[in-house]
Amino acid sequence: MMRASFEDIDSKRGSNSYMAYRYGVPAFPFQWHYHPEYELTLILEGSGKRMIGDSYENFFPGDLVLLGPHLPHTWVSDTASAAVVVQFSEAFVAPLVQYPECERIRKMLARSGQGLRFPAKPALLDAVQRLPARKNAGRITGLLEVLQVMAVSAAQPLASPYFQPVRGRKAEGRINKVCQHIQKHSAEDLPLQEIAALVNLSESAFCKFFKRTTGKTFSDYLVDIRVGHACHLLAESDDPISEIAYRSGFDSLTYFNRVFLRKKGLRPREFRKGLSDSNHSDGGKVPVRPGRS
Questions:
Q1: Beta bridge partners of residue 116, listed in sequence order
Q2: What average pLDDT does this structure show over 15-26?
Q3: Coil, strand or helix at 82
Q4: DSSP code of residue 290
């Protein structure tokens, strides 16, 4: 089992002021982790699930997210995936943004504790992809230019305001084990007793632990994951909605429709139609230039 961990980025950056690299793998594994650095991630290839704090959503090429320090996160995919990852410390960025001209950047960084998702603007995506290749002072000015464009863009918060990152190896190991099990078996029956037993807690103790860690009840979290899986199936297949509901873990189509409407603000059929209309209008593709290694 992959254990949630503290990622030591500082020891990896060598003589560079911050990390900027292209990361490609056969699939993104579930690896619930955190670090004290800010992280900017741009998805170049692949699709799957993005978990940021208590946020659980689909991601596709062009997905651009900024994470604040210590915010736990993971991206999960089943196919070949690639991303540009930029990681920088508070100690590095604070002196650069202390001036009045950088006020918007400072405010954006302050809001990144929840995680922020940004619109896929081609010029911005291109600038992010160029960061790993920037040299000398251009590395610093390039990052500031990217942050400035992001700071004046409409960003969507991801984690709930009340989400509190869990600390401590024991707690992290427990929540990682639970989340991986839910991720793998979300379409199956998952009795509370069975999940609590995974981490050797009573049902009542587990419920308190899970709510304190994720900001959500276990049942609401499970529904979020199932709805997220349903969104993925609605986007990638023409299967009947009743079948998608069943494959996502919902026994009742009526209940599925009601929960989907509550979570997404529209019915599954409307969600699928919106995706179809969007694909016809823009070709279904986000403009992402091949990254440089």
A1: 66, 157
A2: 90
A3: strand
A4: P
Look at residue 2 and tell me whether its pLDDT is greater than 50: no
Tokens of 282: 């823009």
Instruction: Say how many CA atoms lie within 13 Å of 254 toward its Cβ.
Output: 0
Alpha-carbon span 74 to 173, nearest angstrom = 14
DSSP code for 121:
-
Return the minimum-mean-pLDDT range out of 23-27, 131-135, 270-274.
270-274
Domain boundaries, the chain: 5-157, 169-279
Residue 43 DSSP SS3: strand
Report pLDDT digits (tens) over 35-84: 889 999 999 999 988 888 878 888 999 999 999 998 888 898 888 999 99
Q: What Cα–Cα distance (Å) separates residue 259 from each residue in 108, 109, 197, 262, 283?
A: 32, 33, 27, 5, 30
The topology under which CATH files domain 5-157 is Jelly Rolls (2.60.120)
Instruction: Judge whether 5-157 and 169-279 match in fold.
Output: no
Enumerate residues 6+ apart whose C-beta is below 8 A from 78.
27, 48
Does the pTM surpass 0.70? The reply is no
Q: Which residues contact 163 (CB under 8 A, 6 or more apart)?
A: 53, 54, 114, 214, 215
Distances (CA, A) of 142 to 123, 127, 215: 13, 8, 36
Q: In the structure, how many helices (H) and strands (E) does the chain have?
A: 11, 11
- Average pLDDT estimate for 101-118: 95
d(CA 50, CA 53): 10
**What confidence tier does 132 reach under pLDDT thresholds 50, 70, 90?**
very high
Distances from the Cα of 3 to the Cα of 33, 156, 176, 194, 223, angstroms: 8, 29, 6, 20, 24
Report which secondary-structure segment, H or E, holds 6: strand 5-6
Structurally, at CATH architecture level, domain 169-279 sits in: Orthogonal Bundle (1.10)
